[in-house]
Amino acid sequence: METILLKYRSLLQWLSFNLLAGLLIAALAFPPHVEAQVKRGSRFSKQQNCLECHDAKEYRGKFAHEPAEKGDCAACHLPHGKVGALRLKDTGADLCLSCHAADSLRLSAKFVHEPSRAGHCTECHDPHRGTEKNLLKASLPSLCYQCHDAAQFEAKHKHKPLQQGCGACHDMHGSDHAALLNQEQTQLCASCHGGQDATFAKQHAGYPVAGKDCSACHLPHSSETKALLPKTVHAVMEGPSCSDCHVAPTESKPFALNEDERAICTTCHDPLEKHGANTHAPVQDGNCTECHNPHVTTQPALLKANDLQVCGECHSTELEKTKLAHAHSAAKDACTNCHEGHGNSEQKLLKDKSNGQCLSCHDNISTELSQPVTHSATKLGKCWSCHEPHGTNRAGLLKESEDKLCLNCHDELRKSFAQVDVHDPFRKGDCASCHTVHGGTNSKLLKATDNSLCAICHATEMKIEENSVAHSPFVDGACLDCHQPHAANHDGLLSMSVTTTCAECHSDITDKIKTAKSVHQPVAEGQCTACHNPHQSPNKHLLLARAADLCVTCHADIEGARTAKFSHPPAASGECLNCHSAHTSSHKSLLTSAMPGLCLDCHDVTTADFRTAHLGQTGEKMNCALCHDSHGSDRERMLMRNQHSPFESGDCATCHVAEGDKR
Q: 9 and 42: one domain?
């Protein structure tokens, strides 16, 4: 029973859903007038009309879109949708093509107008109402000029069909002919210019040009020159004197040349030998028309196209370089800024010797090259040793990254990268952080001298603080007395080990190591910087801290003694160097002199109290350190912590004979 009820319930749900869906589909499929779809209420139209919110005055114009004229907004719009969104029933051209057949608009033709191809109908047409036929947003040709440069249509001499509008020659949406022409070009021109009358023949020196490509000589829209010729016209065309180059028009091949190309061109233009030792290959071969149009062109010097395009036909690699992130502005503008078109005595057809060529624009470099020290590459006039003359993805038109580029010549520095410590700018290949690249006043092209150069990066470390003690090379800015500029096999870019570096000046200390009885461990290990700052310090002798504080960083056991109940005054006051030498000594424990003489410098051993405490002895033969802690102790008189019981009780006589006793 339960199974039957579940099936019955499922059936009811299925019937309810399909009934609701059917009603919804029917409502959408057969919508009443849009007004009936607008709900009444305070938040909705009270008049059941779209125009209650959307002012009809906004849609002005003599020509109306049919759905807008009928008030059938639902033909294009949905009455509901996302808030703030344009509620169209479909997107782009798909909406328009629900009424306007694509075939009639020729949207499947070989050539389609770009807005039509992209489905951007409203770039040209107003979707509601307009002042122009076909709902165009502006009159022709003004509308076309929004995308097409008006200058090519407004020159002094205009093609007559322009008066009829663009549609006289062009289809608006699509065509099977290039440039959206409504006929094949020769047929289109022939529809007005038959080519059979005497005037036409005279204008073309009797040559049978009918059916030929008119755009080879004439501009299609307007020109500053009569007959719609471009601005650059070959002189022989102005007659026209076609027979100067071609056989007579009555010949079987009337457009054939009457001589080979080189012979014809050199009749008026310089012969080959006048172009210098380096001649452009097409000139050498006599192929002038590889670069030049023999009749007319919009470019100067009768070039077929702008010189970048012409040169790029053969020099495509160089042309692509002008499109890179860092392109030479001169190369990007025109090849003839730097090169001769035909030939000269300089290599690569340069207009001037390499440096002169570059310096004609880069006059700031001229100043650098006038300095006492110049980069050898620039001195030799080989700018291209470092720079790519057309373009590159590296700043400064560098041919390679800076490190690789410099090492191409300075090969001896390659091994520096394998050393223990490498100067950060050198490691990064930033040679120009220290060196000028063209010329300067300092040796090795350094940007500055002494510590001024190092201070560019190390200004904080190199500032000599008030009341500080500074190392003399540091004061003099002689950084290279101790450091290497590129790399070194010792930390801190030291030229030699710490010991050897310091010994260059402080040999009076290092020479004693071999003969000394005791040597301070950091000195023995060559770790001078364990105690000294090599540049500056607020403490005497460039110490890293006060002597007392510095010593206990290693001698922690002494810290406890010097703060004991009974401490040795020199130790308590941190005057370690009263008793000890800092580096080497001819005595144990770096003492400045042997015991007991060292102690006797301060302690008077001639007093009765001293003699009583020491069995009547005066102390000249004693070793004070056998009984006393030289730094401090919790026992009176700084006696050692662990004592022999007779000694502890003061009974020295149990073991020792007092001075003067005959026993």
A: no
Residue whose structure tokens are 């020199």: 570
The predicted model scores a pTM of 0.63
Can you give the residue range of the structural domain that contains 13? Answer: 1-29
The whole-angstrom separation of Cα 459 and Cα 463 is 6
Q: Which of 153, 170, 192 is the last residue of a domain?
A: 153
Query: Does pLDDT of 363 surpass 80?
Result: yes
Give yes or no: residues 142 and 66 share one domain: yes
CA 572 to chain centre: 62
CA distance 158 to 164: 12
97-124: pLDDT as tens digits: 999 999 999 999 999 999 999 999 999 9
Let me know whether 80 and 1 are in one domain.
no
Asked if residues 338 and 330 have their Cβ atoms less than 8 Å apart, the reply is: yes
* pLDDT greater than 70 at residue 212: yes
Q: Both 148 and 47 in a single domain?
A: yes
Domain end call among 153, 170, 201:
153
> Could you give the number of structural domains in the chain?
2
Cβ atoms of residues 584 and 519 within 8 Å = yes
Helix (H) or strand (E) holding 279: strand 278-279
CB-CB contact of 470 with 535 (8 Å): yes
Distance (Å, rounded) from C-alpha 500 to C-alpha 80?
88
Q: Answer with the residue of higher pLDDT: 658 or 216.
A: 216
Are residues 44 and 125 located together in one domain of the fold?
Answer: yes
- CB under 8 A, 24+ apart: contacts of 164-169: 165/140, 165/141, 166/140, 166/141, 167/140, 169/220
Residue 329 CA to residue 324 CA, distance in Å, equals 11
**Pair (24, 40) in one structural domain:** no
Does pLDDT of 441 surpass 60? yes
Please report where in the chains the tokens 């002038």 appear, as a residue: 288
Q: Could you give the CA distance from residue 448 to residue 410 in angstroms, rounded to a whole number?
A: 21
